[in-house]
Specification:
- This protein has 303 residues and is an alpha/beta fold.
- It folds into 2 domains: 8-130 and 287-301, Aspartate/ornithine carbamoyltransferase (Rossmann fold, 3-Layer(aba) Sandwich), CATH 3.40.50.1370; 133-282, Aspartate/ornithine carbamoyltransferase (Rossmann fold, 3-Layer(aba) Sandwich).
- Helices cover 43% and strands 14% of the residues.
- The protein has 12 helices and 9 strands.
- The protein has helices at 13-32, 54-65, 86-96, 107-116, 131-145, 161-173, 189-198, 209-213, 233-239, 247-250, 273-276, 283-301, and strands at 43-48, 69-73, 99-103, 120-123, 152-156, 176-180, 203-206, 218-221, 258-261.
- The strands form 2 sheets. A 5-stranded parallel sheet has the order 7-6-5-8-9.
- Helix 3 packs across helix 4, helix 5 crosses helix 12 and helix 6 runs parallel beside helix 7.
- The longest helix is centred in the N-terminal third of the chain and has 20 residues, at 13-32.
- Bound molecules: phosphoric acid mono(formamide)ester and norvaline (NVA).
- Norvaline is lined by residues 125, 160-162, 222-223, 226-227, 262.
């Protein structure tokens, strides 16, 4: 098992499956009130260089439920924001803490942090990947569909950090993923090349959302402008017209499909209010499962 949790491509199918199994076990224990203090007395730093609701709360509550302490470091409050080198921050933080979660911009920042950290580093979202979220989503798919194998997954929207991470998941775990995005908003080329070489034929690309969602079991979308892209909002709204996951698109998928969104959502943009509130939506389960899968990741990696 890798020492850090920076990207799904560092893990095998068997390793990801074992994290998902542990998450299910920890979820059952938490629901039944069975103690599971696997991080008794440990401290996990939670460094945020971007805003967050779910990631912050689920990590902080998760560490507490495991018997440890989460140390919330909000954007702009550490010396990182004033330019202290990543490698210096990483070496110092690793002397105090037993694990470190970071939400930041470039993937190279979490990679450099991990290179210099003697303790496990967990990626809480970068511009390139959001691996904790996709693991929570997979846990939700397993709960609702009995497994991910043999299911068709669809992505409608921006080729962003979520799309990139789904692409890696499809290639590692072996399921079909169809992505629809406007020209100019493609997923990361290196991620796509890697995935297509690893799992030829698994990933299909189109500009037509109707083709992507046709007969799909799992529908996915996300905001059109991610954190850091706020100034592009107006341009993106025009580029993504026609990419709203609404009832007409959901009707093309399987009747028992599940609709996912990592949240926060912009109703009326990438997803309609009726779909996110509708009977196929599993967005609250996804949000809850952040807690359980992250507990599994922390309990596995933090020593
Ligand atoms: N889905 C997700 O990561 O949400 P937050 O930005 O609220 O953490
Ligand atoms: N793609 C979004 C995900 C938010 C959880 C962003 O990066 O802002």
């Amino acid at each position: 098992m890798a020492r850090h949790f920076l990207a799904l491509h560092d893990y095998t199918k068997e390793e990801l499956d074992s994290l998902l199994a542990l998450a299910a076990d920890l979820k059952a224990k938490q629901k039944q009130g069975i103690p599971h203090r696997l991080l008794d007395g440990k401290t996990v730093a939670l460094i945020f260089e971007k805003a967050s609701t779910r990631t912050r709360v689920s990590f902080e509550v998760g560490v507490f439920q495991l018997g440890g302490h989460g140390l919330f470091i909000p954007p702009g409050t550490s010396q990182m924001g004033r330019g202290e080198p990543i490698k210096d921050t990483a070496r110092v933080m690793a002397r105090y803490c037993d694990g470190i979660m970071i939400r930041t911009y470039g993937q190279e920042i979490v990679e450099e942090f991990a290179r210099y950290s003697d303790v496990a580093v967990i990626n809480g979202l970068t511009d390139l990947f959001h691996p904790c979220q996709i693991m929570a989503d997979l846990q939700t798919v397993i709960e609702r569909k009995g497994g991910y194998g043999g299911r068709k997954f669809a992505w409608v929207g921006d080729g962003n950090n979520m799309a990139n991470t789904w692409i890696e998941a499809a290639a590692i775990l072996g399921f079909d993923l169809a992505l629809a995005y406007p020209v100019g908003y493609e997923p990361d080329a290196a991620v796509l090349n890697w995935a297509q070489a690893k799992a030829p034929g698994r990933i299909t690309l189109t500009t037509d959302p109707r083709l992507a969602v046709k007969d799909a079991d799992v529908l996915n979308t996300d905001v059109w402008a991610s954190m850091g892209q706020e100034s592009e909002q107006n341009v993106r709204e025009q580029a993504f017209a026609g990419y709203c996951l609404d009832d007409s698109l959901v009707q093309l998928a399987r009747p028992d499909c599940i609709v996912m969104h990592c949240l926060p959502a912009h109703r009326g943009e990438e997803i309609s209010d009726s779909v996110i509130e509708g009977r196929n939506s599993v967005v609250w389960d996804e949000a809850e499962n952040r807690l359980h899968i992250q507990k599994a990741i922390m309990a596995t990696l933090i020593r």
